[in-house]
Write a structure and sequence with these properties.
CATH class of the domain at 2-176 and 206-231 and 296-313: Alpha Beta
Order of helices and strands: EHEEHEHEHEEHEEHEEHEHHEHH
Oligomer: single chain
Structural class: alpha/beta
CATH architecture of the domain at 2-176 and 206-231 and 296-313: 3-Layer(aba) Sandwich
Shape: globular
CATH superfamily of the domain at 2-176 and 206-231 and 296-313: NAD(P)-binding Rossmann-like Domain
Length: about 325
C-alpha cells in the first residue's frame, strides 16, 4: 500500500512515519523545501517537495497513493501574524482533502487536536461529544484547528471523503526537534529553568502511543468519526513532580496566580514584537488556556479501536533522554 504522509519531519508525524514503515507501508513524505529533515535520517521513505499552501504541489504528491495521513500543522501558541497559520491549517487542509478526493485515495486519517473539543470545568473528563463553538477557542492555533476539523467533517458528509479524525491530547517523547511548546515545558522543567508554576492540568500521552492510535484509526475507525488519543490527566504540579523524580531537579515550589502572570505575557509579547525575532517565553493565550484543566477521556478509542496508552512516566523519561542525547 502506497501512503502519503504530511508532517513526517515533525514530532508526531515522525512517530507515525516510523510505525507505517514498520507495518509495511510504502511511504511517501510531503516535505517543504526548507524542512528540517533530521527525523527522516536513515528511514526508507520517498520524499516529494511540496507545501500545504501550494495546491499545485498536492496532486502530484498524492498520485498513485491509496492512503493519506495528514499530520502536518502549524502548532504555535503565539504568532506575530496569524494569516499564515490559517493558510496552512485551514485552507491547506481543505485543498489537501480535495486533492485526495480527485486522486481516488481510499482511506484518510486526519490529525486534529483536543484543542477543538469542549471542556468541563468541574466534572468528568471531556470526550468527543463535549460541545464546543468557535467562540470557545482561545488563540489562533485552536481557532484554526477548529475550522480545519469542521471543514474535514463537512467534506466527509457532503463529498464522501473517506476520512477518520483523531484528536491527540498532549504528546511527549523523543524526536521533538523544535521543540513544540509542550516539549519546551518538559525541557525547562528537566533543566531546572522553571521557577514557578500555575494551577492547570493536561492530558499527557507518549507520542508513540499517539502514532499507534493513528494506525488503529486507519484500520478500524468509522468514517467521519473522531477519536481522542490521550493518556493520563495530570495537574501541572504533578507533571513537574514526575519530571523532577526522573532528573533529580526539585520541582518548583511556588504556585503563581493566573492574574499575576497575564501582564507578564502582554509585556513579553510586546517585547518580542519590538525586537522582531524569537518567541515570548510567556504568552497571553498560554495564560488564558492555563485557567482551565484540559482533561480528556480516550474511552471511545479504547472501546472502538483497541487503543491503550502506556504509563506516562515513560513519555517523560524518553523525552528527557532524547533531549539530553541531542544536546
Amino acid at each position: 500500500m502506497r501512503t502519503l504522509i504530511t508532517g513526517a519531519s515533525g514530532f508526531v508525524g515522525s512517530a507515525v512515519l516510523r510505525l507505517l514503515i514498520q507495518k509495511g507501508h510504502a511511504v511517501r513524505a510531503l516535505v517543504r523545501p526548507n524542512s528540517d529533515r533530521r527525523n527522516l535520517d536513515g528511514l526508507v521513505v520517498e520524499t516529494v517537495i511540496g507545501d500545504l499552501t501550494d495546491p499545485a504541489s498536492l496532486g502530484p504528491a498524492l498520485a498513485g497513493c491509496d492512503a493519506l495521513f495528514h499530520v502536518a500543522a502549524d502548532y504555535r501558541l503565539w504568532v506575530p501574524k496569524s494569516a499564515g497559520m490559517y493558510a496552512t491549517n485551514v485552507v491547506g487542509t481543505r485543498e489537501l482533502m480535495l486533492a485526495a478526493l480527485r486522486a481516488g485515495v481510499k482511506r484518510i486519517v486526519y490529525t486534529s487536536s483536543v484543542a477543538t473539543l469542549g471542556l468541563i470545568s468541574d466534572g468528568p473528563p471531556a470526550d468527543e461529544e463535549t460541545p464546543s463553538t468557535l467562540d470557545d477557542m482561545i488563540g489562533h492555533y485552536k481557532r484554526s484547528k477548529y475550522l480545519a476539523e469542521a471543514e474535514v467533517k463537512r467534506l466527509a458528509a457532503t463529498e464522501n471523503l473517506p476520512v477518520v479524525i483523531v484528536n491527540p491530547s498532549t504528546p511527549i517523547g523523543p524526536r521533538d526537534i523544535k521543540p513544540t511548546p509542550t516539549g519546551r515545558m518538559v525541557l525547562d522543567a528537566a533543566t531546572g529553568r522553571m521557577p514557578a508554576y500555575v494551577d492547570t492540568g493536561l492530558n499527557v500521552v507518549h507520542v508513540d502511543d499517539v502514532a499507534t492510535g493513528h494506525l488503529l484509526a486507519f484500520e478500524h475507525g468509522t468514517v467521519g468519526r473522531r477519536y481522542i488519543l490521550g493518556g493520563e490527566n495530570l495537574t501541572l504540579k504533578e507533571i513537574l513532580q514526575r519530571i523532577g523524580a526522573i532528573t533529580g531537579h526539585p520541582p518548583p515550589r511556588w504556585r503563581l496566580p493566573h492574574n499575576l502572570i497575564l501582564p507578564i505575557g502582554y509585556l513579553m509579547e510586546g517585547w518580542t514584537k519590538l525586537v522582531g525575532s524569537g518567541e515570548p517565553l510567556v504568552t497571553v493565550n498560554g495564560v488564558r488556556l492555563a485557567k482551565k484543566r484540559m482533561f480528556f477521556s480516550s474511552s471511545r478509542a479504547e472501546r472502538e479501536l483497541g487503543y491503550q496508552a502506556r504509563p506516562v512516566d515513560e513519555a517523560f523519561r524518553d523525552a528527557i533522554n532524547w533531549f539530553h542525547q541531542n544536546g
